[in-house]
Design goal:
- Among the domains are: about 40 residues, Multidrug-efflux Transporter Regulator, Chain: A, Domain 2, CATH 1.10.1660.10; about 140 residues, Multidrug-efflux Transporter 1 Regulator Bmrr, Chain A, CATH 3.20.80.
- The strands form two sheets. Strands 4, 5, 6, 7, 8, 9, 10, 11 and 12 form a nine-stranded antiparallel β-sheet that branches.
- About 5% of the residues have low confidence.
- About 35% of the residues lie in helices and about 25% in strands.
- The chain contains eight helices and twelve strands.
- The chain is globular, with a radius of gyration of 19 Å.
- By secondary structure, the chain is an alpha+beta fold.
- Helix 5 packs antiparallel against helix 6.
Length: about 270
């Protein structure tokens, strides 16, 4: 569960926007503390935010978004809706280019296999993050990859020294997702809620990313990455940094089918 301040950072929305979405009946907290009225949000609520953002990018008003969500809009109906919006927005492409591209993301997915709402692609700005990290290149002659990952996380957890409040992540600089011909170069990251007076932390920079939410076991995440990569090529984006694999709901959950993992790929325009 995330506090509203943590949830707002994960979703790239202001706290006021999240509260407004609750007021108009679009997004409700998973749990409200009866004593202090604090609101908490489960990882699955990220999927609901993606739905709202997708329809908002299509030019729908909040009233229209509520109507579509309450009516459980089908993939076919959504595809038809997006086709109409694309035609309209194409006439204003110079002024609305960024919004138009995001709309095409959703049309691309729905028109190429009818993917679920959980697999939508969003382009967003990720704010800087203070974190404790450990980076190492995997040597397959010394241990298995599972052993390598376990050792890295155990080592990091020993120095993190505080409860985790923000989703942990792995960043792959080579060997997996990118530069696959090289050994795996991985950094494990435990984000901090704020800057600490410590010498062993660093700040992950602000970055523009293409993001996709993968729901299910990690051994199938490659399918979501390939979908994201295909879309990036279609829209002339290039990878411009290490790929982030963020674990919103992971192995601490009993059901692997309910894992919620976000892939964030730093992007730049291929000129």
């Amino acid at each position: 569960m995330y506090k509203v301040s943590e949830f707002s950072k994960i979703c790239g929305l202001s706290i006021d926007t999240i509260k407004h979405y609750e007021t108009v009946g679009l997004l409700y907290p998973s749990y409200v503390d009866d004593i202090n009225n604090y609101r908490f949000y489960a990882a699955t609520k990220i999927v609901e935010v993606q739905k709202i953002q997708m329809l908002k990018d299509a030019g729908c008003s909040l009233k229209e978004i509520k109507y579509h969500l309450d009516a459980n809009i089908t993939a076919a109906e959504l595809t038809h809706l997006l086709e109409e919006k694309i035609e309209t927005m194409s006439k204003k492409i110079e002024q609305l280019k960024e919004q138009h591209n995001r709309l095409e993301v959703n049309y691309f997915i729905l028109n190429n296999g009818g993917m679920t709402f959980m697999n939508q692609i969003v382009v967003k700005e990720v704010e800087p993050i203070w974190a404790v990290t450990k980076r190492e290149v995997y040597d397959e002659t010394k241990e298995t990859f599972d052993e390598f990952c376990e050792r890295m996380w155990n080592s990091l957890n020993q120095v993190a020294q505080e409860p985790r409040t923000i989703s942990c992540m792995s960043i792959y600089y080579a060997g997996l997702f990118v530069h696959t011909e090289k050994p795996i170069d991985m950094e494990v990251v435990e984000p901090l809620a704020s800057k600490k007076d410590r010498n062993d932390i660093r700040q992950l920079p602000k970055v523009k990313v293409a993001s996709i939410i993968h729901v299910g076991p990690l051994n199938t995440i490659g399918e979501s990455y390939q979908l994201l990569l295909t879309w990036m090529k279609e829209h002339k984006y290039e990878i411009s940094g290490g790929v982030r694999e963020i674990y919103h709901e992971g192995e601490w959950s009993k059901d692997a089918d309910q894992y919620v993992t976000e892939l964030q790929v730093p992007i730049s325009i291929n000129s």
